[in-house]
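assembly run, all chains below
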Amino acid sequence: TQLLEQSPQFLSIQEGENLTVYCNSSSVFSSLQWYRQEPGEGPVLLVTVVTGGEVKKLKRLTFQFGDARKDSSLHITAAQPGDTGLYLCAGADALHNNDMRFGAGTRLTVKP
Amino acid sequence: DTGVSQNPRHKITKRGQNVTFRCDPISEHNRLYWYRQTLGQGPEFLTYFQNEAQLEKSRLLSDRFSAERPKGSFSTLEIQRTEQGDSAMYLCASSSQAGGATDTQYFGPGTRLTVL
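ok done. output:
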């Protein structure tokens, strides 16, 4: 059982559409990170959120950390084929030395 | 800054053989992590070092697995008597903080292990 549940597991959309992916847990995290991973490569950090309710924007990507620091969302506006990849969330588990716990990811495909 | 590097990128071996992977972290980072990732899953924590000290090991790290970081710089992960279930992507990450809540980890490209 994953400590972090990500949904949806798979998402296929057309270029130009908007989308939101979710990362949920029953645990509280000290911080939460979003990564994007392409096939055969390691995850690349997109953002770190620390404060409950925090919102961060990175061009067309908007990240939100839940008020209770148990969940997060990633919204992409006007998706492009270059956004295709596996989006992973990872939380720092405050009860276990802030070890990073990863979700299974959302695999996004953006069709041109 | 060359980032985290790992080699080899790919390794194919026969069951029962030993394999060793290397990770070179970002030069000023004092923490180094090893993860394993199988298809359709996120990375799973294996172990981490702060400088040369191995501070934590996951229960996933069986006695066939050993990791070292002798001088607090690069690290090696050895798997003895490999099994088909060891086939996975082995990821290394490094960070520069002392393990606080904003300890941002940067990943290498991984080593893909296939055990035949």
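The longest strand of chain B covers residues 88-95.

Chain B is about 0% helix and 50% strand.

not gonna interpret more than that til we talk
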